[in-house]
């Protein structure tokens, strides 16, 4: 299929909101639109609440670990904005944009993919951070400031200083942008085809899809191995570790493997639902398992 050959499935008269809800032929579009918008509204509220909690708590702002949590929250909000546009475009097609091949679409999905890769890189860094700081609280010798003796006062957690954490945040953002730059070249563009109900590569046989699977597989492996190691060392974190590993495996499977399947409305519905589910799960896990974040949110509600 070339850009000139692409034809929309419905006429402009069939793209009204009334027709979307009334026509049996557009039932799948209606389900995807309603579920997509509803899930993204929930995700927006949860992420804004999490971001507000982090910004209002001086204690959390001083902890370098929460720099990564803030970055993930920002990535979620960017993805929610771009995916909300995509859900609307899938429902109303050429009433929103005359072609899926426009430059604006190319830039939207470049930003979306940059946020996705930044998100994956940040998850991997967080997993490594948790292994170092939680699973291996090893103390090591440092020279005393008062005498010539050596004594144990520091742990590996001290390696994650605020400056290093800020540098890692910048690294994740730079890595996310670098991984998405090929989408600006005709060889590796990423477009949403509303009649297929999903986002896919164009051309479909691009070399970038293999790089995509390789890097995302590496990120998923780091995350799962890190949390599995935590489970082996700290048994009390079993529920947290299982949930984090399961969520990331499901996210990886749905987002990166589904586009390799045959493009159908049902596959697209699952992909878009899991995309929003991923944005919901991160703040939900933070509020359930992180007492500091939970207490910070409680204080915000108490003040209001």
TrEMBL record:
<protein>
    <submittedName>
        <fullName>G_PROTEIN_RECEP_F1_2 domain-containing protein</fullName>
    </submittedName>
</protein>
<keyword id="KW-1133">Transmembrane helix</keyword>
<keyword id="KW-0812">Transmembrane</keyword>
<dbReference type="InterPro" id="IPR017452">
    <property type="entry name" value="GPCR_Rhodpsn_7TM"/>
</dbReference>
<keyword id="KW-0472">Membrane</keyword>
<dbReference type="GO" id="GO:0016020">
    <property type="term" value="C:membrane"/>
</dbReference>
């Amino acid at each position: 299929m070339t850009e000139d050959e692409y034809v929309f499935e419905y006429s402009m008269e069939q793209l009204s909101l009334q027709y979307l809800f009334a026509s049996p032929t557009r039932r799948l579009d209606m389900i995807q639109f309603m579920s997509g918008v509803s899930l993204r509204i929930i995700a927006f509220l949860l992420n804004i609440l999490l971001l507000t909690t982090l910004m209002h708590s001086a204690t959390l702002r001083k902890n370098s670990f929460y720099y990564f949590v803030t970055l993930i929250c920002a990535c979620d909000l960017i993805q929610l904005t771009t995916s909300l546009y995509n859900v609307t475009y899938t429902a109303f097609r050429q009433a929103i944009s005359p072609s899926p091949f426009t430059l604006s679409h190319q830039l939207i999905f470049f930003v979306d993919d940059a946020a996705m890769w930044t998100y994956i890189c940040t998850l991997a860094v967080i997993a490594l951070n948790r292994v170092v700081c939680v699973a291996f609280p090893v103390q090591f010798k440092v020279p005393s400031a008062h005498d010539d003796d050596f004594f144990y006062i520091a742990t590996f957690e001290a390696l994650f200083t605020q400056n290093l954490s800020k540098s890692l945040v910048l690294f994740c953002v730079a890595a996310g942008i670098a991984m998405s730059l090929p989408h600006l070249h005709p060889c590796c563009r990423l477009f949403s085809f509303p009649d297929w109900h999903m986002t896919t590569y164009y051309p479909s046989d691009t070399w970038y899809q293999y790089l995509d699977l390789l890097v995302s597989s590496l990120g998923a492996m780091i995350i799962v191995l890190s949390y599995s190691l935590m489970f082996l060392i700290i048994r009390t974190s079993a529920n947290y570790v299982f949930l984090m590993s399961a969520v990331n495996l499901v996210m990886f499977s749905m987002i990166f493997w589904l586009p390799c399947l045959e493009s159908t409305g049902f596959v697209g519905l699952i992909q878009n639902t899991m995309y929003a589910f991923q944005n919901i799960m991160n703040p939900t896990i933070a509020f359930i398992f992180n007492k500091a974040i939970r207490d910070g949110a409680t204080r915000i509600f108490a003040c209001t």
